[in-house]
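User: Just a sanity check before I run the rest of the batch. Below are the structure tokens for the first item. I only need the designed sequence back.
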């Protein structure tokens, strides 16, 4: 198949104030080969590093370092989920700096109430979305790679609230990854306790710039996700990048 080439001149994707700074540097342009769906997916470490150099908000941060007290249970690093295969090489949760810092503020608010977030999933490399699609091929359960997922942009997080001391989950409408209408925000046939817990999660996330997703009470998108590219860097690649160029 013939692949079209997208010439991506970094200056063109920058916001106006940064543009002058970028223009003052040697003009650098990169080519991203569009994939079979016509999507530009960043899979080159150098392209990512230069994007971060020109827009620090794009850096992918490891939540275990950025928010040391957050709890992680990265389900896709196990086979204990509906795909029944280990999809992640490591139990890692990365988000773009802008989203990670927003989540850090939200976590501080929960901690003041003796609570904490528990993250089930955050950044998902695009190749994992492709693997999931090959196994499931149903967009009720997994993202269609012809669109990509906001998880691929480092701008989506699946999470719940737990007791900060014991780690016990607050009662929510369904278990994680229950893709029935019971998980929809429109489901109000729930106990007062569950309604209050779901509302606390939503209120806390929305206060810090995240948007709820109607069909999954656990999924939140960072509102400005459209500014962040689809990514296909592995957790191992991200771990080796201590310093952007
Ligand atoms: Zn999600």
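Assistant: Here's the designed sequence for the first item:
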């Amino acid at each position: 198949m013939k692949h079209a080439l997208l010439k991506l001149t970094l200056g063109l994707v920058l916001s106006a104030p940064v543009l002058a700074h970028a223009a003052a540097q040697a003009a650098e342009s990169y080519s991203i080969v569009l994939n079979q769906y016509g999507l530009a997916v960043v899979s080159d470490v150098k392209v990512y590093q230069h994007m971060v150099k020109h827009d620090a908000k794009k850096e992918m941060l490891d939540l275990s370092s950025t928010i040391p007290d957050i709890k992680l249970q990265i389900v896709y690093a196990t086979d204990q989920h509906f795909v029944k295969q280990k999809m992640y090489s490591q139990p890692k949760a990365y988000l773009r700096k802008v989203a990670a810092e927003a989540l850090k503020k939200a976590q501080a608010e929960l901690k003041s109430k003796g609570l904490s977030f528990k993250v089930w999933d955050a950044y998902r490399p695009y190749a994992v979305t492709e693997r999931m699609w090959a196994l499931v091929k149903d967009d009720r359960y997994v993202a269609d790679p012809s669109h990509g997922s906001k998880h691929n942009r480092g701008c989506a997080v699946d999470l719940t609230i737990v007791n900060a001391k014991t780690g016990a989950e607050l009662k929510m409408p369904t278990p994680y990854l229950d893709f029935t209408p019971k998980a929809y925000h429109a489901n109000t046939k729930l106990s007062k306790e569950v309604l209050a817990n779901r509302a606390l999660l939503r209120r806390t996330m929305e206060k810090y710039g995240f948007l709820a997703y109607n069909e999954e009470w656990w999924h939140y998108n960072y509102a400005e996700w459209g500014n962040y590219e689809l990514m296909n860097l592995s957790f191992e690649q991200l771990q080796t990048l201590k310093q952007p160029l």
